[in-house]
Structure formats: C-alpha cells, structure tokens
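Support case: guanosine-5'-triphosphate complex. Customer-provided input:
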Amino acid sequence: MNKIQGFYNIESNGKEYLCKLRGILKRSDKRENCTVGDYVIFDEDGFITEVKPRKNLLRRPLVANIDYGVIQFAAKDPVIDYEKINILILNSLYNKINPVLIINKIDLLTKEELEEIKSNLEYLSKIDIPVFYISTYENLGIEDLKDFLKGNVTAFGGPSGVGKSSILNLLQDSKELKTGETSKRLRAGKHTTRDSKLLTLPSGGFVIDTPGFSSVDLPPTENAQELISLFPEFKTVEDCKFNNCVHINEPQCGIKNAAESGKIPKERYDFYKRCYEKSKNEIWNKYK
Ligand SMILES: Nc1nc2c(ncn2[C@@H]2O[C@H](COP(=O)(O)OP(=O)(O)OP(=O)(O)O)[C@@H](O)[C@H]2O)c(=O)[nH]1
Ligand SMILES: [Zn+2]
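Agent response - structure generated as follows:
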C-alpha cells in the first residue's frame, strides 16, 4: 500500500485497487486505523468499509499481520548475546509474532566455534523456534532461508552491524524473477494492503527492515501468569500441585520437575526464573 494523499493501494485476486477509507473509519483519526498488511473489505465505490481483526501489529514501521519476526545476530563481530536473544524471543511471543533466529557471519568461526554456538542454541529447536546459520560472504544457508520465507511476510530485527542489510539484499536477488513468478500471488483474493516498506521477495513474500537497537527490555506483562503464557513449552508438562503455581519455590511443581528431568530445556527454565525475578521487582509492582 502506498498511502498517497489518503489513498490505499489494495491487492485482491492479483489485481490492484486504489481505495479510500470510509468516513467512519477515518473519524477516530488514528494512524493505526488501517495500515500496510491489513485485510480489508471495500465496496464498489472504492471505499474501505472494514478492517479485519489483526493477528499482530508492528509499530516501527507500522505493519499489520506479520507471519514471522526474524531475530538476527552475528556469530561474532559484534559478539553474540544469548540473553538478548531470549528476551527478543519473549517480546516476539508477547506481540504474537512467530520468532525465527538467524546467526550470520559464520564464516568468521572455526568449526569448533560453530559447533559450540549450535550446541548453546540447541534448546531453541526443542521449543520449535527455527534457527538459520548463515554467511552472506560465503553464501551459506541463504537458499534454505529463502525457502522458509517464501510466501510469508517477515520482519527483520537485530542489533546494528549484524548484517541485516546484507541479508535483505541477498534475499531480493532477482535471479528467480526470470521464472515469471511475481509477488502478486501472495494472498491473492485476501484484499491485503501493500506498501513500499515491504520489500518484495522474488519467490513471493515480503520482508520488512526494522530499526536496529542496542538495549531491549522485558515485555510489560502484568503478572506471573501472563509471563508464564509466553513460555508455551510450559503447557506441555504435567500439572503442578497448586493451581496458581508460579514455578519458583512451590512444592510438587510440574515445571521444576520437567526442567530437572530435561523435558523442558534447563536454559528455558533458568531464563524464566530470571524473567520472573526481574519482572517482579521492576514491572509488576507498578500494578499493585
Ligand atoms: N564476515 C562477515 N561479515 C559480514 C557478513 N555479512 C555482513 N557482514 C559485514 O558486517 C557489516 C555490517 O553489515 P550490514 O549489512 O551493514 O549490517 P546491518 O545489520 O544492516 O547494520 P546496520 O545498518 O548498522 O543496522 C558490514 O561490514 C558487512 O560487510 C558475513 O556473512 N560475514
Ligand atoms: Zn509449578
């Protein structure tokens, strides 16, 4: 969607339509009313009459209905930060965006160093978070990533200097354009709005660059139960003795048992405990 003087560019069944917002949608006058990625209903007169509920909303840049959030780090230079990775995954789940991890610059590692990083991150595959090991310099892992992103809308985030621009450039590599496929196939018939913020992938799908960052906070949950809901793997184990168990000091805690027996990765339980303490001290007391 290129929003030019109030017009929205909508894609439907492979065709594009220029539409305006119906007065009733415009009236509350919010930038977030209708944005890139929204599914909308429009009428014959070219007015958008309804914006469908969103599965998520990214704010910088403003884009709705993202399929995946790529969290990108470098294996080296800048140094990999495991805690930051965990916190970003948590934020992604908080915002209802499926997280995916990319570790770039693996050309800078010895075989042993790469194995060490892979083993440190192995627990992520146990909780169904895909990890891609990539080198844009040596073109390693790019094809697998392209396959994965095909047909999806993916936002890329990460600290600066990890090679986001380098990967986005490679992904847009137009070699595949020759096959005559265009992005038009994406979401045909679903009336989605589009925008120049979305970079089109030759094989179908879009990627979005988000601003780099240095620090990152825990998500602003309101209580322990909301934090626990961001650890989906906790739902898969047997119940705790107490209904309102926060899995810290309670006896007969199913989560603690699962972490001890290895059913839940220990890294995840330890990370949960750190989040619990920090949220309790710095966030939740605001709500009391
Ligand atoms: N060794 C190595 N260096 C890489 C690789 N990919 C990118 N770089 C280098 O890393 C530096 C940062 O790359 P960019 O693509 O500008 O990184 P970015 O994440 O977009 O950085 P910001 O624009 O600061 O957000 C550049 O000097 C790249 O040449 C890689 O696979 N291996
Ligand atoms: Zn428990």
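The pocket of guanosine-5'-triphosphate (ligand 1) is lined by residues 104-105, 107-108, 135-137, 160-166, 212 (CB under 6 Å).

Case will auto-close in a few days if no follow-up is received.
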